[in-house]
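Allow me, if you will, to draw on your knowledge of protein folds for a short while. I have a record of one protein: its chain in single-letter code and its fold written as discrete structure tokens. Kindly check, if you would, that the fold set down in the tokens agrees with what the sequence suggests. Thank you for your consideration; the sequence and its tokens are set out here:
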Amino acid sequence: MRKHKLWMLLLTVCLLLTVTGALWLTAPWDSGVKPDILFEGADQIYEVDGQTIRVTEAEQTVHRGRLLLRGWRLWGGNSCVMGSLYTEKRTFRRQAIWQSETAQKELTIRWFDGTQWQTEPLREGRFKGGTAYFLSGEGYSALCYVPQIWSLLENGARKLLPDNLGWLQAKETESGWHLAVYAPAMPDSCAADFTYIEGPDELINWNKEGQADLWSNYCNAGTGRWCYDGYYFVSPDSYLPEGENVYYKNAASYMIKSFLYQRSTPVARVLAVCMMDTTLRNQNEIGYWPTNSLSTWLRDDYGIGAGFYDTRFNTDFIELLIYAQDYYPSSIYRDAMERYCEFYKWFAQTYHKETASGGWLIPDYWHKEMTSIPHTSLNHQLAECLRLYEMADRLGQSELRELADKLLLAVEDTGEGWIRPDHNLHYSVTQDGVFGGNDYPYLTYNDLFGLQSYLVRRFGQSNNMLETLMAHKKIWMDANGITEYRKS
């Protein structure tokens, strides 16, 4: 009898330990995040479009890892926080990694479920499954890109863990709502990245026609995603590392373009300014934005390693930088543009291929340890030429305009060598003058169109060789049913 009671006691203790352990593993780690420390000191203060921007950064030691936070205080009482929870060891419980309070009682929450928008009054509980949640009500508005979990890989790449998503949690208080951003239990060497924007006024006018359809594209899901340190895009097969759900940091930061263009939408303005700030931090010490992944074909053909300079990605980001400086003028945009120009002038002077009349063909890629000079593709050359003209206008540097003239002259010199018998264009020309490769369906035509439009606008005349190349490309596009090309 006594032995039976002893076994029952042991069994009870084991059950209690099991339940206690399970509760401990699943209990939230709310005490780890201390939001107040983020805005204690000013790391940087600058102006954008005449408005003062205050940027602060903080780092906290939390449960089995580190929490990095960057916060912006912007105009009109708006703020933005981007954060990244890095796990040094595997975590066994969820963690609150950002918290906010509002005194507004009646709020509406919206999210896109992949097919349609769901809208309901805010209630207590966990909102999980979506990647973006929008809160709105009188006196309070917010956007939360919930934590997405990434396994960190070599060459600055990362792998998305799609079944391991964070969430937004709401708890009603006596005065309003307590809102918390949670990361789930995570493996080691992973990052949970989130963005949280809030302000006293409406961030998006949901009654405006087309807004719901438009913002269904900006839920931070799909092939391009925003992270704490920049914009990531699905890695092509030729990049290392590669594989399912592997992303690389894309220097062009294409996601920002959409927000820059939506100047009348408050949340888009906030995202544009904060994302531009983040991307400028990726400009390296010699002035360009590197592609950190390793391209196998660039390695095999030219000895180019990870961290290479891609003229197209950089030129496309410079387009965003020019637009930002035009509509959100700031010294930080101008300074970044000037730094890039100094690098580009050195690069062009050092590695150009001179054409018959003194034009310069600029190679598409560069790496300090490359073993041979890469080819020049027509689309890269045209885009660089246009951006040089535009930067010369903004910066008042005649040297940039003279360099753009040399790039345009090189296109004129190589001229009809770009045209294939079927009227399509060759993709590139080698250092030895050999044309070849398959051109994009319409990208190069758009670059021809853009440069030609600038020349007409700026100098009052079109370029005959550009007109000839456009005409041949148009014949090929029409014959092959390509209609997405630029028309205005």
About this structure: The chain has eleven helices and 26 strands.
